[in-house]
Design a protein that fits this description.
The protein has 14 helices and 15 strands. With about 400 residues, the chain is of the alpha/beta class.
């Protein structure tokens, strides 16, 4: 099969729509269940490249949660702590496989953004991973294969209409890629530059020490950025992205957006949030929304008279700004990657508030000295990679 007809394109009025291979070549995918759409395939193919590269770079199973052609989360299969298992809502599933741990991390870092995601897995989907996927709201999954029992679990989702795609792991695209915009064909060489530890050797700050875990986190950050709509930055810690800022015109806005998401990730681990008294039977999405509002600027809306009863058994205490800042000040050893250079030191100042200690960015700004000086002020270690990772 070299062509697959789709229901419509980005929007229902954009017809006809299809994916196809030129010169009669076979499509490298099989649709095992459902009928994926145009945006589903864009997410699936971008996400597959991301997780494949993460596994190549780290040697660990990898997963990504994709939404609107940018990752909401990406991670490798490191074991979860008890606290992480709780905030990712998988503590009732027992011991998870490495691949399931990777997806729990990818999905759980920013659950608001991951709602209705497309799931991308580097390895054959096992039962442990399928059990997590079964109970989350998502559009579909792409993987190089599926265990028979795992496939059966996924085929029950959405009354048999859940999108399940199998991709040939050995498929290699042509070295030159094309796309049409406004009837005009654009052509460029694929971005096949390998992202590995060699990119982290040019440490330009006074602090030259980047430990192995931080190097892994920086690689996760950079590979994630390679498939994130630019401008973009990514905060990472402990084997996963914890905050991704995508598609902003100003880099400091990327840094602020991603930093806020990283802050939310840590605040969710605070006992005051872990022990919120939810009503019995609350839906997962409603619980996620309530937590996001409670720890954000809208917490007074959640606690307003007549509102809190819908989600909480008793009215929780206000999570004050001072309490949140005290908890966030415990954050440390966070890695930060940027797809292009930081033009001003305000990005570093914002990153510091979210516990960033290790940075990887291309360098090349006329204000590199000011950025380096700011890193030195906070004893951060920063590597200039010399590569830009724009993705459009």
């Amino acid at each position: 099969m070299n062509e697959l007809e789709l229901k419509y394109g980005c929007n229902p009025n954009q017809k006809p729509s299809r994916i196809f291979m030129k010169e009669g070549k076979e499509l490298p995918i099989k649709v095992l269940c459902g009928k994926p759409g145009y945006i589903n395939f864009l997410d699936a193919f971008n996400g597959w490249q991301l997780v494949k590269e993460l596994k190549q770079a780290t040697g660990l199973p990898a997963a990504a949660s994709f939404k609107h052609v940018s990752p909401a989360g990406a991670a490798v299969g490191l074991p979860l702590t008890e606290t992480l298992a709780r905030i990712y809502w998988v503590d009732d599933l027992g011991e998870l496989s490495p691949l399931a741990s990777a997806y729990a991390r990818a999905r759980g870092a920013d659950r608001m953004s991951s709602f209705g995601d497309f799931i991308c897995l580097s390895d054959v989907c096992d039962v442990s991973t399928a059990k997590i996927i079964k109970r989350e709201v998502s559009d579909g999954v792409i993987a190089p294969g599926y265990e028979p029992e795992a496939l059966a679990i996924l085929q029950e989702k959405k009354k048999g209409n859940y999108n399940v795609i199998e991709i040939d792991p050995d498929y290699t695209p042509a070295p030159v890629e094309q796309k049409d915009v406004f009837g005009i064909t654009f052509e460029q060489g694929r971005n096949e530059l390998p992202i590995n530890n060699a990119l982290l050797e040019n440490v330009v700050t006074e602090n030259k020490e980047i430990p192995e875990q931080a190097k892994m986190d920086l690689l996760i950050s950079l590979i994630t950025l390679k498939y994130t709509q630019s401008n973009s930055v990514c905060y990472a810690k402990g084997g996963q992205a914890i905050g991704i800022g995508a598609g902003q015109q100003s880099r400091v806005h990327c840094t602020r957006l991603a930093g806020q998401k990283a802050d939310n990730w840590l605040l969710r681990q605070c006992p005051k949030v872990l022990n919120l008294p939810f009503v019995d039977g609350i839906k997962r999405a409603d619980r996620d929304n309530a937590i996001d509002n409670y720890i954000g600027d809208e917490y007074m809306d959640v606690l307003a008279e007549g509102a809190w009863q819908r989600v909480f058994k008793v009215r929780p205490e206000v999570f004050t700004a001072e309490e949140k800042r005290a908890w966030l000040d415990q954050m440390d050893d966070v890695a930060l990657g940027s797809d292009a250079f930081f033009p001003f030191s305000d990005n570093i100042e914002r990153a510091k508030k979210s516990g960033v200690k290790y940075i990887a960015e291309p360098g090349g700004s006329i204000r590199d000295d000011a950025v380096i000086d700011c890193c030195n002020k906070y004893n951060m270690a920063m590597a200039f990679t010399g590569i830009r990772l724009f993705h459009h």
